Amino acid sequence: MSTTLRTLWLIRHAKADNPVFGETDAERQLAPRGLADVQRLSKHLARHNPAPPQWLWVSAATRTRQTAEPLADLWHSQVIYEPSLYLADTLTLLDCLQGTPDDCSSVALIGHNPGVSDLAHLLLGQEDHQTVPPDLPTLGVARLTFQGDWPELGAGRCRLASYLTPKGLRTGR
């Protein structure tokens, strides 16, 4: 087992507009509040940016792309739009993350619920379960750490480094 310390950012996409007639779910855009929340998060992370991800796994949906673009610009991350992440379940997300290149010590995944929330709870040790709600809010960000290689990522292997929400950023908490 590797002793490399890894950082994993699990991010639920920002608030999306309601569906519009003739538009698929995957085409839904961010709502004005979602766009504002992404800008607020980007500004916060520019001031407090520990272990910025070198690699972003992103669902191919429009709302996840719109969430990812400002963050990728801030972090100078390589973005991988992965179609299998659209509304993916926990095991699909985990499988994707386990395929992350070994030279990446910090990675982000931007996706959808319930998969992102379920994955956070699968990866976290028991002591961190109370800090992260069962369902991450839109643009909820759980930053996790673990020691090992990406293929070793699994149940209970991670510790919570930080948890951010748009509401917390708006109120300064």
Summarize, please:
This protein has about 170 residues and is an alpha/beta fold. About 30% of the residues lie in helices and about 20% in strands. It has a 6-stranded mixed sheet with strand order 3-2-4-1-5-6, with helices on both faces.
Task: Tell me what the structure shows.
This protein is of the alpha/beta class. It has one domain: Rossmann fold (3-Layer(aba) Sandwich). It contains five helices and six strands, in the order βαβαβαβαββα. The protein has helices at residues 32-47, 62-75, 90-98, 115-123, 166-171; strands at residues 5-12, 55-59, 78-82, 106-111, 141-147, 159-164. The protein has a six-stranded mixed sheet with strand order 3-2-4-1-5-6, with helices on both faces. The longest helix is centred in the N-terminal third of the chain and has 16 residues, at 32-47. The protein is globular, with a radius of gyration of 15 Å. The model has no long low-confidence stretch (mean pLDDT 94).
Layout of SSEs?
Blueprint: E1 5-12, H1 32-47, E2 55-59, H2 62-75, E3 78-82, H3 90-98, E4 106-111, H4 115-123, E5 141-147, E6 159-164, H5 166-171
Parallel strand pairs: 1-4, 2-3, 2-4
Antiparallel strand pairs: 1-5, 5-6
Helix pairs in contact: 1-2, 3-4
For the structure shown, list the relevant keywords.
5 helices, 173 residues, 6 strands, alpha/beta, single chain, 31% helix, 6-stranded mixed beta sheet, Rossmann fold
